[in-house]
Specification:
Number of helices: 8
Number of strands: 6
CATH topology of the largest domain: Dipeptide-binding Protein, domain 3
CATH class of the largest domain: Alpha Beta
Structural class: alpha+beta
Order of helices and strands: HEEEEHHHHHEHEH
Helix content: 25-40%
Radius of gyration: 22 Å
CATH architecture of the largest domain: Roll
Distance between the termini: 30 Å
CATH superfamily of the largest domain: Dipeptide-binding Protein, Domain 3
Number of domains: 3
Shape: globular
Largest sheet: 4 strands, antiparallel
Strand content: 5-15%
């Protein structure tokens, strides 16, 4: 970010969007909620050598122009079949099988490199109590959550993993057995009671416009309810959810 932008107030939106590295943002073509366009930046020089790997390695621009479109699922499906777009980032799981039947399309599993997390608010009861958080580990069903995200084909997801994804340098399976095996929700309810939970309401946020996050939110909510928690599920668009995440107020005060 240029210094003149970094020096502006953090409480005001950035007024100038430029781009980064090999591509330049085209503000005159931007349509909020519909399209963002970028063109190759001819003065950018990528690193001369090194292996490519996600965000590491030389940043080589292979296309003169990139357009990022915001489409609903059925418009994206029709556009992909018609050859009007080249790539669909996150198709809903119930459409993946249909996409895979098209010989002109390739479906690439990505979930091995992405982690779904049910994150507690540690600042406020009941989750400021480590015993409550520890009890709920036995309520989490990873396979059930990933099925909600990516369907029943296990080629598209993994379970039985810890905080760091399989195949990454930090991945390990220490104490992972707590997440494996059948879930015993009656036992979890008893453990929560011993930890001091007494049916207090908890707020769970689920983003309506990001399909994988919404699916994880709904699956997690169901598991928390089976564990005996009094869940107030609040669904909202992703931007509103992000603002809620940043608040340190109590959940009943907008946090």
């Amino acid at each position: 970010m240029p210094e003149r932008l970094a020096a502006t107030s953090p409480f005001k939106p950035v007024a100038e969007i430029i781009g980064s590295g090999p591509y330049r943002f085209l503000p005159e073509e931007h349509i909020t909620g519909a399209r963002a366009a970028y063109e190759r930046f001819p003065l950018y020089q990528p690193r001369a050598a090194g292996p490519l790997g996600f965000t590491s390695g030389p940043k080589i621009a292979h296309f003169d122009r990139v357009e990022w479109l915001t489409l609903d699922a059925f418009s994206a499906l029709a556009a992909l079949h018609a050859g009007e777009i080249d790539w669909w980032e996150l198709p809903p799981s119930d459409l993946v099988e249909q996409l895979a039947r098209d010989r002109d399309l390739t479906v690439i599993p990505q979930y091995a490199t992405a982690i779904g997390i049910l994150r507690f608010n540690h600042l406020h009861p009941p989750f400021n109590n480590v015993a409550v958080r520890r009890a709920l580990l036995r309520a989490v069903d990873q396979a059930e959550a990933m099925t909600a995200v990516a369907g029943t084909d296990r080629a598209f997801w993994r379970d039985g993993i810890g905080l760091f994804g399989p195949g990454t340098p930090l991945a390990n399976d220490a104490w992972i057995e707590v997440l494996r095996g059948p879930r015993d929700y009656a036992a979890v309810q008893q453990e929560l009671a011993r930890a001091g939970y007494n049916g207090e309401p908890i707020v769970v946020l689920a983003a309506t416009d990001v399909q994988p996050i919404r699916a994880l939110g709904l699956a997690g909510t169901d598991q928390l309810r089976r564990a005996g928690m009094n869940v107030d599920l609040q669904e909202m668009e992703w931007g509103t959810a992000l603002r809620r995440f940043q608040s340190q107020a109590a959940p009943d005060k907008g946090g």
